[in-house]
Amino acid sequence: MLTTTNWIEPRKGRPFITLTYTQSLDGSIAARPSTALALSGAAALTFTHHLRAMHDAILVGIGTVLTNNPALTVRYVPGVNPRPVILDSLLNCPPTARFLDVTRRPIVATTRRADVVRQRELEALGAQILYLPAERENAARVNLHALLAHLHAESISSLMVEGGARVITSFLRARLVDRIVITIVPTLVGGVRGVTDLLSDTQHFPRLRNAAIEKLGDDWIAAGEIVWD
């Protein structure tokens, strides 16, 4: 059963990474950019919180924070809340963000382009502001390899990545995903795709190994280990 399998396996120099998101039957995660869309049913949502409880930390991008204002907690099953990690290269995170909790020591990963005044505001609310190099090909994005090395040094051995689309695609393109879990909802949306760019050339795409699919309520959970050609 997907809901009882222990998926976490040690990785050298970085956390084990589970990428998870919910999409419609046609691959949409939102109807329009920067808008929230609740898709999954109660059973699949409970399973997502089960996954959260299995991981040391949970990561989203600033776009998800601004759109959904998620608490990033475990609420529908017993378990410990994962440590929040936010990708926010310019420190646009508002002080009203729900994940800000001094007891959880949230990490906000940013670059030297960040707003110093906002840094002080977020630190006063318990956030650890982590300055990291930017991606060489895109100065507006945090270098994921540098971030994962830091998380590993902080004894974070497992990381759940929840998206949105830019974050999902960035982790896949960087080949920094060990296992993927997709909730598929039997709805057609025609909106924003979860994967927004090709992940390889037209002959070599990532595949799933030991793949499984399970029906939860009206939704399906598809999961497997990523294999990179």
Taken from the alpha-carbon principal axes, the silhouette is globular
Largest sheet: 9 strands, mixed
- Ends: how far apart? 27 Å
Report the β-strand fraction as a percent range.
25-35%
SS-derived structural category = alpha/beta
Number of helices: 5
- Gyration radius (Cα, Å) is 17 Å
Spans of at least 5 consecutive residues whose pLDDT stays below 50 are none
Order of helices and strands: EEHEHEEHEEEHEHEEEE
Compute the number of strand runs: 13
CATH architecture: 3-Layer(aba) Sandwich
CATH class: Alpha Beta
Topology, element by element:
Elements: E1 16-24, E2 28-30, H1 42-54, E3 57-61, H2 62-68, E4 83-87, E5 107-110, H3 116-124, E6 128-131, E7 134-135, E8 138-142, H4 144-153, E9 158-163, H5 165-173, E10 179-185, E11 192-193, E12 207-216, E13 219-227
Describe this entry's structure for a reader:
This protein has 229 residues and is α/β, with parallel strands linked by helices. The chain has one domain: Dihydrofolate Reductase, subunit A. Helix content is 21%, strand content 31%. It is built from 5 helices and 13 strands. A 9-stranded mixed beta sheet has the order 6-5-4-3-9-1-10-13-12, with helices on both faces. It has a two-stranded antiparallel ribbon with strand order 2-11. It has a two-stranded antiparallel sheet with strand order 7-8. A hairpin with a 2-residue loop joins β7 and β8. The mean pLDDT is 89.
